[in-house]
C-alpha cells in the first residue's frame, strides 16, 4: 500500500529528484515519486512512516505524514 507524505521546501525538479533518491535508499522501498507542486511524496513499500519522514528530513526538507 502506498504511503503519502507531505514534503515542504521542494522548489525545482532537482529537489524532487533529491527526495526520491533519499526515499529509494531506505530499505524495503520499492518506488518513490515526489511532486513539488502538490508538496507530496508517494512511496511504495513496507516501511514505517517515521523512517520515511526521517530520510526526507536528512535530505534537507521538512516532512510529515
UniProtKB/TrEMBL annotation:
Residue intervals of the HMA domain: 1-64
InterPro entries hit by this protein: HMA_dom, HMA_dom_sf
Top-level taxonomic group: Archaea
SUPFAM superfamilies given in the database record: HMA, heavy metal-associated domain (SSF55008)
UniProt GO molecular function: metal ion binding
Protein name, UniProt field: Heavy-metal-associated domain-containing protein
Amino acid at each position: 500500500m502506498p504511503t503519502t507524505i507531505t514534503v515542504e521546501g521542494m522548489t525545482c525538479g532537482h529537489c524532487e529528484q533529491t527526495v526520491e533518491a533519499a526515499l529509494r535508499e531506505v530499505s524495503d522501498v520499492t518506488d518513490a515519486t515526489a511532486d513539488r507542486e502538490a508538496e507530496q511524496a508517494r512511496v511504495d513499500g513496507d516501511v514505517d512512516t517515521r523512517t520515511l519522514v526521517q530520510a526526507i528530513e536528512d535530505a534537507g526538507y521538512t516532512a510529515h505524514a
